[in-house]
Amino acid sequence: MESDGGGWRNDELMQALTDEETAAVHRVYLAASDQHDFLMWEHTKSGDFTVRSAYHLEMQRQSGNEGASTPDPKTPLWKRIWGAGVPQRVKNLVWRAMRNALPTMHTLASRGVPIDPRCPRCGESAETMEHLVLQCEDSKMLWLTSPARLSDENRECESFTEWCITMSKKCTMHRAWEILMMFIWKAWSLRNMWTFERKRVSTRIACDKTMMLLGEYEAALVRDETPKPPIEPQECRWQTPTLAPYKLNIDAAVREGMIGLGMVVRDREGDTLMTAGRKVATDCLALQAEAEAMYFGLTYAFDAGYRSVEAESDCLQLVQLLRTEHRMRNATQRPCNKVVHAIARSSLSMSEETVWMDDQPDNISALVTSDKASLS
Ligand SMILES: [Zn+2]
Question: Which residues form the Reverse transcriptase zinc-binding domain (predicted)?
């Protein structure tokens, strides 16, 4: 390699190696900037290893579907799932459940994981998708209490996928399919809550929360359909990071005796990798609040493994103070910071700190999409 790291010394390579080996060396990517080497896991956007991504990879490999997991778009059920008026995470979950791609105890055991295949809640039978969503006692209660009012007979099936197909045909009334999808998702989250946190919530509360979430999502859809303001001029739009692989936007919202902190980490495509919000009871000036938000954002991003981020704030005074010691982007204008501004504002009304990994709260989805759409 050249002493400045800028390229390979071809003459030396050709003397020491065969043509094939030289070609292989040339395929090694050399960083354009003077940065340290680091290890990356290529199957997550952040480059960090997660068990979830490894599990997906293995499932794709086993089904011989690596790199081409897009299902046949003509399948009616596929269309029903992806066209449903429910949050994206619910669609993802139902889709994975239908393909038997969720790590139930039975699935894990059948893949060779040394684990008890029985249901962790009742221990009565193997934890298959059918048992987990339809047969386990807690799920039975959930379905009976839900607006779907599914009786025993309606929950009988050969396989979960078969049941989804049958139900998608039966659900012809307005919202019926959406409600069904929401409760499949809820059954899975209640199961996780018990399995990993040993927490149980009352069926009535679970039903109310699920229907509330669906209502909020529908209300947000209506809001999205109202005319949008014209696209802001170039200099006011969110820009992709140029100094680091990820961009961290932070903001603070101040209300009497209270500040709401918000942070969002996005990649070069403008996709959200992490968002977090937190409410702090304190009386402080706007500058202090912005500094709190910066500290909050940097700490949380660092803890989540984002070590090389470009930080951006819309508080010019804070940026000027920080610029003396750190590499920091210019202050951005408020419209560029609208996603994180929304997070900071909504964290004022949250009772506890919230962190979203590889996902985002529904109330910022439209703003993220609009930022992505305006990327030049
Ligand atoms: Zn069970």
Answer: 49-143
